[in-house]
Design brief:
Layout (H helix, E strand, L loop, with lengths): L3 E4 L6 E7 L23 H11 L13 H25 L2 E8 L4 E6 L3 H51 L9 H64 L4 H6 L6 H31 L1
Antiparallel strand pairs: 1-4, 2-3, 3-4
Subcellular location: Nucleus
Protein name: MADS-box transcription factor 58
Main location: nucleus
Length: about 290
């Protein structure tokens, strides 16, 4: 298996395609792939990490390597492993594989068991076929919704016609059998309607009876209150105290204590007047 190195614009993109097909390997000119020896100054940590990964010990944190030398060494190692995996995939699984890698310096590395351009064209055709299939699915979905809407419109029309026949319209074209079936349906409907009407009337009658009892109780309560007020008024009249109605007509609030005081004053006034008259007579006689 060989790889070809081509100078290209700086990029770090990686693309890979895989299709089932012939397993014949067609490689470009170039040196054979070999596992690079990791022995460069300042690369001890990279070598230890690589050894740990190879022996299955520990995990490497996936992030950008800041050291330029270490990053280049890791790129060479990973690139060779990726190309080896692509070759094994094409041979073991009889798949059509195309691999394109650009290094950080812009160098191109590619591999394919057939032809990179042919594989790319096949990829473009496959993606266009998928787009066409997606368009076909959309068309099928639209057609389904159109059929569903037509079915619903027909169902609405049938329901409207059925409602018109129930009220006696659009029955001129109905046969004797259809009219008989319609009559039976109407009879069943009338039975249900009458039963429901009787239920409603019974419930309303029960409600009115309950209201009548409540109103009678309220009437008895109000009558008892009126009788109590009348008895209280008679008692007040017998005592000679002005009634509450008189206070209300004179715009004075009714106060039992004040009424009692006024009643006592009215009883004492004649004696007061008699003393004044006696004193007046005494003075006249003295003259």
């Amino acid at each position: 298996m060989h790889i070809q190195e081509v100078q290209a614009t700086p990029s770090t993109d990686i693309m890979q395609w895989g299709f089932s097909g012939q397993s014949t390997l067609t490689s470009t000119t170039g040196p054979k792939l070999k596992e690079p020896a990791v022995s460069s100054p300042g690369s001890g940590s990279v070598g230890a990490a690589a050894a740990a990964e190879k022996n299955g010990r520990g995990k490497i944190e996936i992030k950008r390597i800041e050291n330029t030398t270490n990053r280049q060494v890791t790129f060479c190692k990973r690139r060779n492993g990726l190309l080896k995996k692509a070759y094994e995939l094409s041979v073991l699984c009889d798949a059509e594989v195309a691999l394109i890698v650009f290094s950080s310096r812009g160098r191109l590395y590619e591999y394919s068991n057939n032809s990179v351009k042919a594989t790319i064209e096949r990829y473009k055709k496959a993606t266009s076929d998928n787009s066409s299939a997606a368009g076909t699915v959309a068309e099928v979905t639209i057609q389904h919704y159109k059929q569903e809407s037509a079915r619903l419109r027909q169902q609405i029309t049938n329901l409207q016609n059925s409602n018109r026949t129930l009220v006696g319209d659009s029955i001129a074209t109905m046969s004797h059998k259809d009219l008989k079936q319609l009559e039976a349906r109407l009879d069943k409907g009338l039975v249900k309607i009458r039963a429901r009407k009787n239920e409603v009337l019974s419930s309303e009658l029960e409600y009115m009876q309950r209201r009548e009892m409540e109103l009678q109780n309220d009437n008895l309560y109000l009558r008892s209150r009126v009788d109590e007020n009348e008895r209280a008024q008679q008692t007040v009249n017998m005592m000679g105290v002005p009634s509450t109605s008189e206070y209300q007509q004179g715009f004075l609030p009714y106060d039992p204590i004040r009424s009692f005081l006024q009643f006592n004053i009215m009883q004492q006034q004649p004696q007061f007047y008699s003393q004044q008259e006696d004193r007046k007579d005494f003075n006249v006689g003295g003259r």
